[in-house]
C-alpha cells in the first residue's frame, strides 16, 4: 500500500506563506485597533467625521422610522380614545372650564405687561429660527444622551445652536453634517443649562442625570426654597441659550436642590426648531473652557 502524502504545512511553501500572512494581518489589525482605541479615549472629537458619516447614511431609515412611529402613535391614540371617550370628555370639560378662567387672567396680565413695556420703551428681540427639523433618532440605553435631526449644515445648522420644541428646550447642536445634526440633550450629564425660577427669578442650573431626568441645583446654597411644581426657564447666562425658554419642572425637592423632569420630553417630540446662538461669542468660550478642562471620561454613545 502506497504511503499517503504528508499534508503538514512544513512540506508546502505556499501553506507556510499563507500562515505567515495570516499572522501578519492579525498582528497588524490588533495594533491598528489598539491605536484607534487610544485615540478615541484621548481625543473623542477625532472620530466626529465618522459619526457624521454614519448619521448621513442612516438618515433615510431614521426618517422612515419617525414616520412609522408617528403613525403608530396616532393609531394607538385613536383606539384609546374610542374606549375612554366618556372619561376623556368629562376630563376635557373640566379642563376647558379651568382654561377659560385662566385665559381671562392671562389676558389681563398680558394687557398690563403691554402697557408697561410701551411706557418703558421695552421692545422684545425677535430672533428668527434657523430652521425647523425632525427628530429621527435618539439614544435608548446609554449614559450619554444624544438625538439626531434630519437637517444639517445645508439648512444653516451649526454647533452651539439651541434646539427647542413647542413645550420647551431639547438641547443644543454639537455636530452638524450636510443633512443631519447631532444634538446633546438636556438630560446628558455634560449639558449644564443656566436657569431661573419663574416668579421670583431664583438662579439655578439644570444638569442631566443620564436617566431621562434632570437635577436642579441652586447657585446660592443654604436653605432650600424649592417646591414641587416649580417651573424653571433659561436665564440667558452663558450666551448659548436664549432666555425664557421652559426647561424643567421640579418633582422631588431635596437638600441640594431638586430632581425634575423636562418641560419637553424628547421621546414625545417629532418636530423642533433650531434657534441661533444667543450670544455668538459664547460658542468659542465654551470650546476654550472644554479644551482647558480636558476630554470627558469615556462613555457608551449608542445612537
Protein model, in words:
With 303 residues, the protein is an alpha+beta fold. It contains 5 helices and 12 strands. It has helices spanning 13-42, 48-57, 59-83, 85-120, 281-293, and strands spanning 131-138, 146-149, 162-164, 169-176, 181-185, 192-197, 203-208, 214-218, 231-234, 246-254, 257-262, 271-275. Strands 1-2-5-4-3-12 form a 6-stranded antiparallel beta barrel. The protein has a 6-stranded antiparallel barrel with strand order 6-7-8-11-10-9. The N and C termini lie far apart (65 Å).
Q: Element order, helices and strands? A: HHHHEEEEEEEEEEEEH
Low-confidence stretches: 297-303
- Helical content class: 25-40%
Distance between the termini: 65 Å
Count of DSSP strands: 12
Q: Could you report the average pLDDT, rounded to the nearest whole number? A: 79
Side-by-side strand order of the widest sheet: 1-2-5-4-3-12
* Computed structural class: alpha+beta
Number of continuous helical runs = 5
Q: Which radius of gyration do the C-alpha atoms yield?
A: 27 Å
Largest sheet, described in full?
A: 6 strands, antiparallel, barrel
Shape: globular
Beta-strand content bin: 15-25%
In short:
The protein has 303 residues and is an alpha+beta fold.
Indicate the topology.
Blueprint: H1 13-42, H2 48-57, H3 59-83, H4 85-120, E1 131-138, E2 146-149, E3 162-164, E4 169-176, E5 181-185, E6 192-197, E7 203-208, E8 214-218, E9 231-234, E10 246-254, E11 257-262, E12 271-275, H5 281-293
Antiparallel strand pairs: 1-2, 1-12, 2-5, 3-4, 3-12, 4-5, 6-7, 6-9, 7-8, 8-11, 9-10, 10-11
Amino acid at each position: 500500500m502506497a504511503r499517503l502524502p504528508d499534508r503538514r504545512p512544513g512540506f508546502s511553501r505556499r501553506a507556510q506563506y499563507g500562515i505567515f500572512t495570516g499572522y501578519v494581518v492579525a498582528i497588524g489589525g490588533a495594533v491598528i485597533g489598539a491605536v484607534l482605541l487610544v485615540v478615541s479615549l484621548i481625543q473623542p472629537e477625532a472620530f466626529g467625521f465618522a459619526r457624521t458619516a454614519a448619521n448621513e447614511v442612516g438618515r433615510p431609515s431614521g426618517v422612515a422610522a419617525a414616520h412609522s412611529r408617528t403613525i403608530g402613535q396616532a393609531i394607538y391614540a385613536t383606539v384609546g380614545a374610542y374606549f375612554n371617550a366618556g372619561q376623556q370628555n368629562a376630563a376635557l370639560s373640566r379642563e376647558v372650564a379651568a382654561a377659560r378662567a385662566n385665559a381671562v387672567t392671562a389676558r389681563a396680565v398680558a394687557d398690563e405687561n403691554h402697557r408697561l413695556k410701551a411706557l418703558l420703551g421695552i421692545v422684545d428681540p425677535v430672533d428668527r429660527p434657523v430652521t425647523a427639523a425632525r427628530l429621527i433618532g435618539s439614544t435608548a440605553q446609554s449614559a450619554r444622551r444624544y438625538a439626531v435631526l434630519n437637517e444639517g449644515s445645508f439648512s444653516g445648522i451649526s454647533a452651539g445652536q439651541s434646539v427647542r420644541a413647542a413645550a420647551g428646550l431639547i438641547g443644543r447642536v454639537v455636530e452638524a453634517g450636510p443633512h443631519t445634526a447631532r444634538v446633546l440633550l438636556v438630560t446628558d450629564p455634560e449639558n449644564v443649562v443656566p436657569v431661573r425660577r419663574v416668579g421670583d427669578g431664583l438662579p439655578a442650573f439644570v444638569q442631566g442625570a443620564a436617566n431621562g431626568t434632570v437635577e436642579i441645583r441652586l447657585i446660592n446654597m443654604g436653605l432650600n426654597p424649592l417646591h414641587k411644581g416649580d417651573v424653571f426657564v433659561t436665564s440667558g447666562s452663558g450666551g448659548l441659550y436664549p432666555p425664557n425658554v421652559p426647561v424643567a419642572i421640579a418633582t422631588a425637592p431635596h437638600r441640594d436642590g431638586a430632581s425634575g423632569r423636562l418641560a419637553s420630553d424628547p421621546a414625545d417630540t417629532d418636530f423642533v426648531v433650531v434657534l441661533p446662538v444667543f450670544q455668538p461669542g459664547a460658542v468659542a468660550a465654551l470650546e476654550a473652557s472644554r479644551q482647558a478642562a480636558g476630554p470627558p471620561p469615556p462613555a457608551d454613545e449608542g445612537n
